[in-house]
Amino acid sequence: MEIHTDLSELPWDTAIALGLFDGVHMAHRQVLSSAVAEQAHGLIPCALSFTTRHSRPVSKQGEQDILTQSLRNKRLEALGIRCLLLPDFDDIRSCTPERFVRRVLLGRSRGRFLSCGYDFRFGKNAAGDAELLTRLAAEVNAKTAILPPVIDDGQRVSSTRIRTLLRAGQIEEANRLLCEPYAFDFPVRQGKHLGHKWGFPTVNQEFPDQMLVPFYGVYLSEVSWEGKRYGGVTNIGVKPTIAGERRPLAETHIFGLSAELYGSPIEVRLLRLLRPERKFGSVEELRAAVTADMAKAQRLYGEVQK
User: Fold this and answer.
1) How far apart are CA 81 and CA 120, in angstroms?
2) Which of the listed residues 106, 269, 285, 295 has the most CB atoms within 10 Å of its CB?
3) Which DSSP category does 41 fall into?
4) Exposed, middle or buried, 232 (CB in 10 Å: 0-12/13-18/19+)?
5) What is the pTM for the complete model shown?
6) Which residues pair with residue 65 across a beta bridge?
7) C-alpha distances in angstroms, 292 versus 204, 287, 299?
8) How far is 26 from 152, CA to CA, in rounded Å?
9) Under a CB-based contact definition with an 8 Å cutoff, are residues 113 and 35 in contact?
10) Is 166 exposed, middle or buried (0-12, 13-18, 19+ CB in 10 A)?
11) Can you tell me the distance from the alpha carbon of 66 to that of 22, in angstroms, rounded to the nearest whole number?
12) DSSP single-letter state for residue 8
């Protein structure tokens, strides 16, 4: 998948899915699949999103990211997106809705088909909506698809709903709406090596400030490394039994993998919550609980693999 961050002119006619796609969830996939389907009509399926390193739209302020950009890119490509247009939000925030559609979408990006959700907003002060998008596209005979909300169990599928589920530890329900497991791929950092001393080393990954931190607890997990998948057990939290730092951290023991991983971005997927994080009366109690967690996780991962 090609990634363009400067909105330079593209060499082909395109079908463009519009949205932040922060979770690449069930509703996002409806928008994306409508653009991918236009490949049958000779259009290159693209997604136009934006990064939020410096600022966010008013409607997104205060929200934390569900997936890292690298994982979003991976999932978009797997869904058939061949080109990702990814400017920084600051580079497009002052663009009027009309200029954004005419100059960026229909002009430089050569959009001949545009798809978005029913509540998509764009342009300066989010003044543009799906109705305006359709009208402006029609001026040059470009087609649009405005997708309705996706309703699941009587509720709208949204990133807000998925964030609520992740923070509540309802990982299996969140994964169902995401259409694949929630995951993170932060670089592995040095830890205190306590697990190594106990005979079950862990990889430690710190959650950046802008990333959502799931419910503090112990999870059955799966790890990707060099094209292979391994079962694991992941603790997310602040290690209340151990003195020291209190930044949220993911510690994962990987079954059957002992490679040197420091500095590497490791993808960890959470499959099932085993128990909440808790403070134990002693380090010995903690060690016994971790040993039991590992045994349970190994058994469950074997069942998942059948």
Assistant:
1) 19
2) 269
3) G
4) buried
5) 0.91
6) 211
7) 20, 9, 11
8) 10
9) yes
10) buried
11) 6
12) P
On whether residue 253 sits in a domain, the answer given is yes
**Considering its fold, how many domains does the chain have in total?**
2
Which residues are paired to 272 by β-bridges? Answer: 220
226 token code pair = 């060099």
Q: What is the pLDDT of residue 60?
A: 60
CA 24 to chain centre: 6
Domain identity same for 146 and 21: yes
Q: For the domain that residue 121 is a member of, what is the CATH number?
A: 3.40.50.620
Asked whether residue 169 is domain-assigned, the answer is no
Cα separations in angstroms, 256 against 94, 121, 130: 51, 47, 50
**Structural domain includes residue 155:** no
Least confident of 3-17, 34-48, 270-284: 270-284
Per-residue DSSP letter, 256:
T
From CA 237, how far away is CA 218, in angstroms rounded? 9
Check if the beta carbon of residue 278 is closer than 8 Å to that of residue 201: no
CA-nearest of 226, 212, 216 to 182 is: 212
List, in order, residues 6 or more apart from 108 with CB less than 8 Å away: 7, 8, 9, 10
- Assign residue 284 the CATH number of its domain: 2.40.30.30
Same domain for 144 and 234, yes or no, is no
Asked, for residue 156, whether it belongs to a domain, the answer is: no
The Cα 122–Cα 231 span in angstroms is 42
Angstrom distance (rounded) from CA 101 to CA 198: 59
Phi-psi region of 145 (alpha: psi -120 to 50; beta: other; left: phi over 0): beta
Residue-wise pLDDT for 96-114, tens only, equals: 999 999 999 999 999 999 9
pLDDT tens figures, 55-94: 555 556 668 999 999 999 999 999 999 999 999 888 888 8
Range of the domain at 294: 181-305
